[in-house]
Amino acid sequence: MSTIGEEIRKARQEAGLTQEQLGFEAGISRQYVSLLELEQKSPTLDVLLRLCKAMGVSAGTIVKRVE
């Protein structure tokens, strides 16, 4: 089973985005993206939805991979 951070990283890489690009598109900092991917922070629902929109995936897809 994977973590939400691992799934965010996978989706970001599949979308061909850097952490900086993803942060810009989602309206958050690159550092925050890094903290999410390292599981040092957990995304709020709002942040998760903005990340998913920026990566072109549904939040359901990310959550299902974690379950």
Give an account of the 3D structure:
The protein is mostly helical and 67 residues long. It has one domain: 434 Repressor (Amino-terminal Domain). It is 69% helix and 0% strand. It has 5 helices and no strands. Helix 1 packs across helix 5. The chain is globular, with a radius of gyration of 10 Å. The model has no long low-confidence stretch (mean pLDDT 96).
Radius of gyration: 10 Å
Number of domains: 1
CATH topology: 434 Repressor (Amino-terminal Domain)
Determine the CATH superfamily. lambda repressor-like DNA-binding domains
CATH class: Mainly Alpha
* N-to-C series of helices and strands: HHHHH
The portion of residues assigned to helices is 55-70%
Average pLDDT score: 96
| Record field, number of beta strands | 0
Strand % is: under 5%
Overall form = globular
The CATH architecture classification is Orthogonal Bundle
- Rounded to the nearest angstrom, the distance between the terminal CA atoms is 7 Å
Contiguous runs where pLDDT drops below 50 for at least 5 residues: none
**What is the count of helical runs?**
5
Largest sheet: none
The SS-based structural class is mainly alpha
Main attributes of the structure:
67 residues; mainly alpha; 434 Repressor (Amino-terminal Domain); 0% strand
How would you concisely characterize the structure shown here?
The protein has helices at 4-14, 19-26, 30-37, 45-55, 59-66. With 67 residues, the protein is mainly α.
